[in-house]
Specification:
The complex is a heterodimer of chains A (426) and B (387). Chain A is of the alpha+beta class. In chain A, strands 13-12-9-10-11-14-18-16 form an eight-stranded antiparallel sheet, with helices on both faces. Chain A has a four-stranded parallel sheet with strand order 3-2-1-4, with helices on both faces. In chain A, strands 5-8-6-7 form a four-stranded antiparallel sheet, with helices on both faces. Chain A is built from 14 helices and 20 strands. In chain B, the strands form two sheets. Chain B has an eleven-stranded mixed sheet. In chain B, strands 1-2-4-5-8 form a five-stranded antiparallel sheet. In chain B, helix 1 runs antiparallel to helix 5 and helix 3 packs antiparallel against helix 10. The longest helix of chain B is centred in the C-terminal third of the chain and has 22 residues. Chain B is globular, with a radius of gyration of 21 Å. Chain B folds into two domains: 158 residues, 3-Layer(aba) Sandwich (Aminopeptidase); 137 residues, 3-Layer(aba) Sandwich (Aminopeptidase). Classes of the chains: A alpha+beta (426), B alpha+beta (387).
Chain lengths: 426, 387
């Protein structure tokens, strides 16, 4: 029997969420595969189980309940691939958690499109191919350019922009290479600025926590290269975007939990790109906490358990978030000593992180091995404030990339990182 | 007998305000409903033979297994504007087989299943007049209400095509799975010549060669059915060749279907040089839709389906001549059917019970059913039966 003042949550995988559960004094049963020793010690009951076997997970949870007397009040996961399992366990045990249909509808990109169709929410043109041979014909239905996605479980790594049939054929072969059955979604390319909308849903009612303008890198990776708050939308446009997000979450059946929704504002109006039933990655959850006063991880736990939401006053109205990315491959240089000026110790301190060392070979943002090499996140109360902070950071860091040539030392003919150009575009 | 199915307040609210202007009624036999009114809805909605009044009158009497009709009808005033043929199933060989695949150990179906309408058909679910799309949700509310009143363990839809309605069901919490693929040809050609001319020349030549091989060997491939017993024998021999129990399509059921739907029949028969019927495609025209439902083959005499290409070519040519808009070539053999212009259409199963713990198991079952179906499509697993 649980003490009335100490609820129990069964958590499927995750790490940060365990820290928050612990801070909240919540008893935690962790279900995971190969749980590291330090994490096993930090939770009340670690349960190692094959997370692909949902019935085994249910049996283990029931066994824990019988052995320890700890019965879960809720089941939760903030990892995309395990959200459906958490929904399944919550339904089977008759405890609180995100509804299983909502989790499944978000987890499968084709199901999400169909659910939006069912609610008469405008989708881009799309078609579903149930096997690779059929995928080669997606262009006939959708037209070019199209965006090819695996429908399940691969995130942005399994998305390719295909300007023509040759590119589509190559992309199908590439995304099929991993083996196993594949299903593809071909979508009309949505041209327009992208927005990340963070939400909290309680009993089917959705609150918008933040709307951020997203900067997206070039194909084929479409890496997220930065975010701005405010998002630069007019009040009318922001209403359109947030109304669409609320309707989309309702269409997929979202009842309890947080979500990170990507939308694009096209000439025909806003369109949903993806619905992720979890907080955003990177430091976007922190950004949302600063501008909304709501910690999304804590809010997800509170919503799931039916606890009152902890809400603090927003700490800043403006955020500039830029990823460290490069326009060309080369050898990285920057002033390492300058990083000590940006310890990021307090909530509104600038966050400056570079994930590569001086001298490391780095690749362009559109290179398959490239991507994001760090981030600069600044908080303030005006654009001018942010611009001044940004100049100070870039002046201190002196990030440069020297052109790479085989076997030769870095050339003095270097050029700045793309991060500077991103700042100018604001 | 028909009874009004009001649905609970929450069901009607979930169905949306449009649903409130329609009245859902339950009919325990299609024979209780005027055939012309019923078929008018089906024809206007583009339905196939599997939604027709004649099919259901026949199915009610002879369908394999044990079931009783529980059709949900939507009325706007006195006008019938939507039909959702459904059956309260105590036992059905196809449903039992589907449940034997990947069923979670805890999933114990402890009562009848209300299904609209059968895994045997190539189409299912509700149809409404175009001017009354809101009636779809009223029909769903009616199905839920009927499931409650009839004590169904779960309820739902079989062989739905993907579209806004099946998408809406996803948001309503139905467990769904693609359980089969049907191959459909949208007919856009004015003549058989135009059809062949629209094909890449290499493919056209290859298909013509395959057809000519059969015809030049003295085979005759023609529109029209063989004798009823012959047709049933061929269908059963093909089932047996694929390890599929004939109880799925018992002789009395096939006899009744072939007899009662004869006015709509568009079968194609292949006869060997001695004149013996060796293969058959059995199908029916309804409105602008042709459904080639069953294939039969004298597998004792033939190692392979030798006349297959010649028969497919004739089906398409005859459909073009008859101004058919869609040919449903049925399940399996997708690689060959695609060459004749067919596109794969998923057939969806959507089920729910309204009880979260039970629904969770239905979702798990559907997830695994779909994985199996998907693996077969990707060539990573083989189907153990032909249907």
């Amino acid at each position: 029997m649980n003490a009335p003042d100490r609820p129990t949550v069964a958590c499927v995988a995750g790490q940060h969420v365990l820290d928050v559960l612990s801070e909240m004094g919540i008893r935690t049963i962790l279900l995971g595969e190969d749980i590291p020793w330090d994490i096993a010690c930090s939770v009340d009951v670690p349960v190692e189980v094959d997370l692909a076997d949902w019935q085994a997970c249910e049996r283990e949870l029931r066994r824990v309940q019988a052995r320890t007397g700890f019965s879960a009040d809720a089941v939760l996961s903030l990892r995309d691939s395990y959200v459906p399992l958490a929904g399944f366990l919550a339904a089977r045990l008759g405890v609180r958690g995100m509804s299983l249909p909502a989790a499944l509808n978000c987890n499968d990109k084709a199901r999400m499109r169909r659910a939006l169709d069912g609610a008469r929410i405008a989708n881009p043109r799309y078609a579903i191919a149930m096997e690779p041979k059929e995928a080669a014909g997606l262009g006939d239905v959708v037209g070019f350019p199209l965006v090819l996605k695996r429908t399940r479980g691969a995130g942005g790594g399994a998305v390719r922009l295909c300007p023509d049939q040759v590119a589509l054929t190559a992309a199908v072969a590439e995304l099929t290479a991993a083996g196993g059955p594949v299903q593809f979604l071909g979508e009309e390319y949505l041209d327009g600025p992208e927005f990340a909308v963070q939400t909290l849903t309680v009993a089917g009612a959705t609150e918008i926590l933040s709307v951020l303008r997203a900067h997206i890198g070039p194909p084929p990776r479409f890496a997220e290269t930065g975010y701005d708050h405010p998002a630069g939308l007019s009040a009318g446009q922001e209403h359109e975007v947030t109304d669409l997000v609320r309707a989309a979450l309702s269409a997929v059946g979202m009842d309890f939990g947080v979500a990170h929704v990507q939308a694009r504002y096209t000439e025909e109006g806003p369109r949903i790109v993806e619905i992720n039933p979890r907080p955003p990655g990177g430091v976007l959850a922190h950004v949302t906490q600063v501008v909304s006063g709501v910690d999304m991880v804590r809010a997800a736990i509170e919503a799931t358990l039916g606890l009152p939401l902890t809400r603090r006053a927003p700490q800043a109205s403006h955020v500039l978030y830029r990823c460290v990315v490069f326009g060309q491959p080369g050898y990285l240089s920057y002033d390492v000593d300058a990083l000590r000026f940006f310890p990021g110790a307090k909530a509104l301190d600038p966050i400056v992180e570079i994930d590569a060392d001086p001298g490391d070979l780095v690749f362009a943002v559109d290179h398959p091995d490239g991507g994001v090499y760090g981030r600069v996140v600044l908080f303030g109360d005006s654009d001018a404030d942010l611009a001044a902070q940004y100049r100070a950071v870039t002046d201190e860091l002196q990030v440069r990339v020297a052109k790479a040539s085989a076997g030769a030392p870095p050339s003095p003919d270097s050029y700045p990182a793309l991060v500077l150009a991103e700042s100018d575009s604001r | 007998m028909t009874v009004t199915v009001p649905g609970t307040a929450s069901q009607m609210l979930a169905a949306g305000p449009d649903a409130l202007i329609y009245r859902a009624e339950l009919a325990t036999s299609a024979a209780d409903v005027n055939a012309d009114d019923w078929d008018e809805v089906v024809l206007a909605a583009g339905g196939s033979i599997f939604h027709s009044h004649a099919w259901h009158v026949c199915f009610e009497r002879t369908a394999p297994g044990s079931m009783s009709a529980a059709h949900v009808l939507a009325y706007h005033g006195d006008q019938l504007v939507g039909v959702c043929p459904a059956y309260l199933i105590d036992s059905c060989p196809r449903l039992s087989y589907a449940l034997s695949l990947d069923r979670p150990a805890a999933l114990d179906v402890g009562g009848p299943v209300l299904l609209a309408h059968s895994l045997a058909a190539l189409d299912g679910g509700p149809l409404t007049l175009a001017a009354h799309p809101g009636a779809l949700r009223a029909l769903d509310a009616g199905l839920r209400g009927a499931a409650r009143d009839l004590g169904a363990w779960c309820y739902g839809y079989a062989n739905l095509s993907p579209g806004p309605f099946s998408g809406w069901l996803l948001g309503q919490g139905y467990a769904t799975a693609t359980v089969a693929i049907s191959y459909r040809v949208p007919v856009s050609w004015n003549s058989p010549e135009e059809y062949w001319a629209s094909m890449r020349s290499r493919r056209k030549q290859s298909l013509r060669n395959a057809r000519n091989r059969t015809l030049s060997a003295g085979w005759q491939v023609a529109s029209g059915p063989p004798e009823r017993d012959e047709a049933i024998g061929l269908i059963h021999r093909l089932l047996v060749a694929y390890g599929t129990p004939t109880e799925l399509l018992p002789g009395d059921f096939l006899t009744a279907v072939l007899r009662d739907l004869a006015p709509c029949e568009r079968s194609v028969t292949a006869r060997d040089p001695s004149g013996a019927a060796r293969a058959v495609f059995t199908g029916w025209r309804f409105g602008e839709h042709l459904a080639m439902w069953l294939a039969g083959l004298d597998s004792a005499e033939l190692d392979a389906f030798e006349p297959y290409h010649a028969m497919l070519a004739l089906v398409v040519e005859a459909a073009i001549a008859e101004r058919i808009k869609t040919i449903d070539l049925g399940r399996a053999n997708g690689d060959i059917k695609r060459r004749y212009g067919a596109h794969p259409t998923p057939l969806l199963l959507a089920v729910r019970s309204g009880q979260p713990d039970r629904d969770a198991l239905l979702h798990l079952w559907c997830r695994d059913l779909e994985r199996r179906s998907h693996a077969v499509l990707n060539g990573l697993e083989t189907a153990s039966r032909c249907c």
